[in-house]
Amino acid sequence: MGMRWSRRAGPLCALALGSSGAALAQQSPPPPEGEPFRVPTVRVEEAHEAPAPADSATRRDPTGALTVIPVQGEGGAARDTAALLSTAPGVVVQDSGGFGQSKSLIVRGASANATLVLLDGIPLNGAGGIADVSRVPVALAERLEVLRGGAGARYGAGGLGGVVNVITRQPSARPRLSAELSSGSWDTAAGWASATGPLLGTDALVLVHGGTSSGRFPYRFNPNPTLPGGALEERSRVNNDAHAAGGLVRLRRSVGEHLSLDVLGELSADERGLAGTAQNPSEDARQAARRGAVTLRLAGALPGGVALDARAYGRRDGLALSGGAWSTSAPQVQWVGGVEVEGRRRVGAVQTLSALVSVGGERVTAVETNAAGEGAPTWLRASVMLQDALWLWAERLLLAPSVRLERAGPYTLGSPKLGATLELPAGLELRANAGRAHRAPSFLELYVRQGTLLPNAGLRPERALYADAALVHRSDVSFASVGGYASRYQDLISYEAYPPGAARPYNFADARVWGLEAEGEWRPHRLVSAALSYTLTVSADLQRDGRFYLRELPYRPRHKLFARVLAGPRWLTGRVELAAQSAHALTRDGVLVLPGRAFVHAGLSTTWGHQPELTVTAEVRDLLDARAEDFVGYPLPGRAFFLSVAGSFEPGGTHP
Amino acid sequence: MTPRRFLPLVLLGSLLGLLGLAGCTDPEPLCPEGQSRCGDACVDLSNSSAQCGGCGVVCAGTEACVAGECQCRPGATRCGGACVVTASDPDHCGGCAGEGGEACAAGAVCEAGGCKAECTRPGATRCGRSCVDLQTDAFHCGGCGHVCADARGCHASACADDVIAACFNTGQVVGLPASADARGPAVAVGTSPQALALMQDVLLVLDASTVLRQARLSDYGELPARTATGLVPNQVRVREPYVFILNSTSNTLQVLRRDGEPASGPGPRFPQGLALTNVGSVNLGANTNPYAFTLVGPDAYVTLLGNLQTDASAGGRVVRVSLADPTAPVVTGSFPLPSGDALEPFPGRVPLPAPAGITALGGRVFAALGNLDARDFSSAGPGLLALLEPSSGAVERLSLGPDCLNAFWVAPVGERLLVSCGGAATYDRDFNLTDVRGTGLVLLDAGGRVLASLPLRCPEGTSCPLPSAGRFAVVGSRAYVGDNNAGRLFPIDVVGDTLVERPALLVCPRARGPSLVSDVLAVP
After folding, report:
1. Cβ neighbourhood burial of B349 (10 Å; 0-12, 13-18, 19+)
2. Among A56, A223, A484, B173, which residue's Cβ finds the most Cβ atoms within 10 Å?
3. Which element (helix H / strand E) includes A5?
């Protein structure tokens, strides 16, 4: 098997698009020594020094629809985590507008609270089930993994639409200093600095980051939108500032001959204005959050050929609102923690069995709760997972059945999945998956009163049935994947009026989403590369009420396109990007529609030297100054300019 | 099984999975709440005289469908096996023949329950041997033998219900006679009808999904004409040829003008609906959250509830908007409402005036004050009414007594004022609604003195869904009060200085979940 990997991976690893040009890719880490564990996907970005963590999506779901987005050379103030994730097929970002402002993800048509977001495996979804990716700085990440489709079998409840795993930067045994500073429109500035190298017998990484923006971008507002020819007013966003800072520490050392111990600690603090809508802005509503997370991981090989991955993690997230209607609300603190042990062992010549046991908990404090929440709702989570990887037909066919049994608070959930890949001639490969996933109701939906939004302890988990299939083609200079997917979402939870004067969540919605996902990269010349992703999303409301039945779900644009062309030598590389999405409904009856939009971004970067290496990048976002908004009344920034300077130095390092 | 045999199964399974989830065939949508399928149509079998209790079961013209059974409609009496109109039926004039009534002699006519040689009453028309008023007779509406369907009355020779209710959660409108002892069939109009108004023979249905819809007054069939509104439209009023719409989230008062003229001759005056053109709009300011308005002379008085989520301070006022030139509405005055201690806050509560309904009586303007706590929208103080003197700008606070919390809607009944109080919710530890305190009606004289209060509650010794009084309309001395919670209409009679509750009628039934009667319209 190892030979097969080398034969395939060798020429493909040579397809290095360069650190500033690497984009979408389906990527696989090298398999552990002696295992018949093959990931039938391909690496098309620059090779990484460290192997993928044992809990990376490529390991966890070898047949899944996975897009890996390298972060190195991205980011700065011009491009945040949400902007990078939006380049993946199947992902739509819901954006409140502006640096550091709330951004959440819709994957394969599932709601924003039905996408799991993990930081090196630590769940980041808040008490409401939604993960705000604006609170995940790009600087932390080495790459972003987007696993599309139900993820219940491998990741547990929560991933109806998919999983985003943020893989943090790895410590290295070689000393290296890196930093980036960027600045741009609307008083936006961001920077980070990292140092890695040997420290007290470990490989260590220390990274600090920070960012700030006034968020006072201009937008056009029509105070009388129903009046034909009503004059547009040019206004600036107020109370839209954001400030964040944090740090990451990683230590890794060998334990014995075959095990390695990895410790990660992450701290972040952010504060932002909650600007409200253009129609009804808020001048004093604020949000402040503090997050601390820690992971302890032991991974490697045990005697008897068992590959071990054991980790313990914890996260504390404090969220405080102030001003406006929230002036007297108490801070909300979420605690998440757990222990997870996974073993993997080869059985016979063509089979690998994996088993996982996890136990954890979640708690939210300082909130007004119902009786079921008892003042500080607390859940115990426990699950067992089994996966088989079976190679058949001269190792051309991989069948990977898996199942997870899970207890999440009061809910018992079973999530089976069957995945398969088939290697075909001419560089083609077929991949297919089908299974079931769940989303347990969030703590806010179940237990917590939020003003007029009342909880409902009687909610059932949301359910998803999903299937997908894709055809993948690879060559020395290209990668392409075209596939279809379909998901059926049942028992979806939505708030409904609960008179007098309140609303409450109920399980009453039912939906279907199917579509196409295409992505590809092409490098016709060593100085030119192109990347493209396209998503067709056809959703249907299946609640059999004639007002909504078979209408497309709100906030699900039917078409989404991302394209990028990169050209030039290292000393002057140009980049042009197009990010577009079609019009989509804002209400279930389809009456209110958000127009389609297309943003063009362009940038130039120049890189000099090797030790040290210095890169200067100038970027224009929304080059054509297309004015758009998201949701109802949240303007998005128009044309913006950013300049960044990045450098790195590796004492004693050699020139490539 | 060999891999070669396994492969087609995997591919076939994936394909079937995709097709199955994508849905090759979809079942038909369920009929709207309370309706059943008859062929291709969805029908309210409980209240449709054309299909009563079952598809194809037709009630006689003198019958109405009540709870799925044909019964004599208002104005008709059962004589033998048939329902007859004893006021004009020559065979049962004044009552069933031989049972207090008589069969008029050959050649005689029946008029107002008496046999006569000929029709004598002013406005009477002879239809066969019956004397009727074609303007008002539901059995001869606009012409001899033209029977209004269901339980509709005859208004100026056109068939229409006396009262129309909007069902927000089920997306329907329902008509009923003034007697409120029956209702017509529920008809689907739009997504979430929020407010109603009448213009010519067209029912204007303000749909919360940001569109003004139009329906025939005769049967509520939706007309093709539609007009986009601002965000969260909340109230619509008509002053020919203008239509005014208040958009709460857009903070605008939107002005439409009817451009077309009615068709001549019999039949609908606007068979394709009204041609409405946007001609004016005024923005009342960010976070003002305008809630309701009343038209007084050339002005509109608008309550600004304030955005309790972002900036409540922008509300708590009534503004006067000059509509002297409806194409250029302009704010000409602002009336701050009582706030702080003037709202008599309950202990620990921080009250906001949160004005909602507004009306005018005797040249003065009255606004209902919600007196809410912005933190959870619960009652922060007792029910209050604000009295505005437009000429002086003076604002006076009127107490609504101990039985009223969350004053919501207000309208005149003759020379008196009637106020509905939405009440305050009480929840158990699981936030299930266990009580609505302080909901009901309050009657005041023109000076603002409380004459009577009527708490709404389940009849003694019974259980029922908790009532919460909402918007209402007045016909004569009867108010039809919409229920915020369970789809009922509460007829309340003003008898002297008292309020008398009549049996409630379920107009917006819903199998599951709350049902808001979002507006009630009295047809003149």
Report:
1. middle
2. B173
3. helix A2-13
Residue B28 burial (CB count, 10 A):
11
d(CA A386, CA A406): 12
Taking the CA of residue B281 and the nearest CA in chain A, the distance in Å comes to 6
| Out of A226, A282, A457, closest to residue B430 by CB | A457
Segment B166-220, tens digit of pLDDT: 999 999 999 999 887 788 999 999 999 999 999 999 999 999 999 999 999 999 9
What are B163's strand-pairing partners? B176, B522
In sequence order, the 6+-apart residues with CB closer than 8 A to the CB of B25 are none
**Which chain A positions have a beta carbon within 8 Å of B32's beta carbon?**
545-547
Say if residues B134 and B143 touch (Cβ distance below 8 Å): yes
CB-CB contact of A516 with A482 (8 Å): yes
Q: Is the ipTM of this complex over 0.85?
A: yes
Q: Provide the pLDDT confidence category of residue A499 given band limits of 50, 70 and 90.
A: confident
Tokens at residue A544, please?
């059999």
Instruction: Indicate if the pLDDT at residue B9 is higher than 80.
Output: no
Q: Is A135 helix (H, G, I), strand (E, B) or coil?
A: helix
Determine the pLDDT at residue A165: 93
Torsional sign, CA A146, A150, A154, A158:
positive
User: Where residue B462 falls among pLDDT bands split at 50, 70, 90?
Assistant: confident
CB-based burial of residue A364 (10 Å sphere; 0-12 exposed, 13-18 middle, 19+ buried)?
Answer: buried
Confidence of residue B11 (pLDDT cuts 50, 70, 90): low
- Taking the CB of residue A371, how many other CB atoms lie within 10 A of it? 12
Question: In this structure, what token pair is assigned to residue A25?
Answer: 């890719």
A300 Cβ contact partners less than 8 Å away, ≥ 6 residues apart: A255, A256, A258, A259, A260, A307, A308
Distance between CA B502 and CA B277 in Å, rounded? 42
For residue A543, what are the CA distances in angstroms to A489, B171, B293, B384? 11, 15, 36, 42
Q: What is the pLDDT of residues B396-411, one digit of tens each?
A: 999 999 999 999 999 9
**A–B CB contacts, 8 A cutoff, strictly below:** 210
Residue B309 Cα, gap to closest chain A Cα (Å): 5
Task: List C-alpha distances in Å: B157 to A644, B134, B140, B220, B380.
Answer: 78, 6, 9, 17, 49
- What is the 8-class DSSP label of residue A351? E
Contact B429 A230 (CB under 8 A): no
CA distance B333 to B129: 61
CA–CA dist B304, B388 (Å, integer): 14
| Minimal C-alpha gap between A468 and chain B (Å) | 7
How many whole angstroms separate alpha carbon B202 and alpha carbon B125? Answer: 27
Region A434-459 average pLDDT: 94
SS3 state of residue B69: strand
The pLDDT confidence band at residue A1, using thresholds 50, 70 and 90, is very low
CA distance B26 to chain A (A): 9
pLDDT at residue B414, rounded to an integer: 94
B430 interfaces chain A, CB cutoff of 8 Å: yes
- Which residues on A lie below 8 Å from B19 (Cβ)? 486
Which residue among A496, A540, A592 sits closest to B210, beta carbon to beta carbon?
A592
- CA dist B329 and B382 (Å) reads 35
Give the separation between CA B334 and CA A566, rounded to whole angstroms.
59
Burial A58-92 (b: 16+ CB within 10 A, else e): bbbbbbbbbbbbbbbbbbbbbbbbbbbbbbbbbbb
Cα B357 from Cα B400, distance rounded (Å): 14
Distance CA(B242)–CA(B237), nearest Å, equals 9
Asked whether the predicted pLDDT for residue A343 surpasses 90, the reply is yes
pLDDT of residue B13: 65
